[in-house]
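# nightly structure sweep
# worker-07 picked up a monomer target from the shared queue
# config: single-sequence mode, recycle default, output format = structure tokens
# input follows
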Amino acid sequence: MRRASLGAALVLWTAMVAGAQAQLSLPGATPTSTTPTLPLPVPSTGLAASMTVPSGTPTNYLAPGIEPDLAFGALQRGYYMTALREAMKRIEGGTQDAHAMTLVGELYKDGLGVRRDLKEAARWYRLAADRGDPQGAFSLALAYLRGRGVEENRQVAIGWLEKAALTNHSGAIYNLGLLAIDGEIQDFDKARTMFSRAADLGNNDAAYALGLLYKQGRGVERDPQKAAQWFRKAAEDGIVAAQVDLAVMLFNGDGVDKDEATAVRYFLKAAATNNPVAQNRLARLLVVGRGTPKNMVEAMKWHLLARSAGLQDEWLDAQLAKLSPRERVAVDDAVRKYVSSVGAPAE
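# output follows
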């Protein structure tokens, strides 16, 4: 049976995360564990951020005395037709600009300024990769892993990831770590090496992955302190799953000094991204007043949001049933205001 490589890696990784997210020591029934949906095991940045700036190009495209990258700057600002036009100028100018070729591939992949065409995207990625662009090699590898625009081929994908990794492309290195544990033979030692290398290069997904390995003792000696350190790094850089895991460790005093107030702060950050696990745990803390003042309206708001995402909690349902009619109206109003402000799902 043909393997869907990235999908398999995601299933495996989701299982690992489920094991990492411990329960809080709180009154009432233990809530059903629901793992938040993780991004595909690739860097979770948006399109513009995923494009690496050519060596020597400043992030400030108007820096005096330095020629700006007009195509990349237009891409960042959402001017896709301009980005395509500027990239093609560079390509047709005889410079064999590999970075511009990758940019064109990105536009075709997502249908930005052009008709979406995965085969055409893969063609541009290959042109860029053959000319040594690490982002082109990385994007081509993902196309082979997913079977998008090319026939799915894990080994070919690994080959291109390895080429990109030679240039310290952190996304390629991170994915090589994921693929090391995506199979019948799981090499957690290699995964640790890859995650550590990518994390040192600033890849936040890899930092979280490394924290999971230390939390569970896979490929390394189990070390809650190191797990918490890597979770904190990833959490501060916006990895939502890391925020949830760090909050649990802070609340329980696992690998870190017990700090319920800081745990609440991380749960709140994750809850505001519509993470149902964080919303559920935050609701429980607000009911009992642990790490934060007791607030039944806020608690039930987060409970209803988590429940609408599929996370059931009979104990919180029982607390909801105890509210007065006036309190229930306040809860409904709080949910409506939240939904209108962030576009969260609602019952």
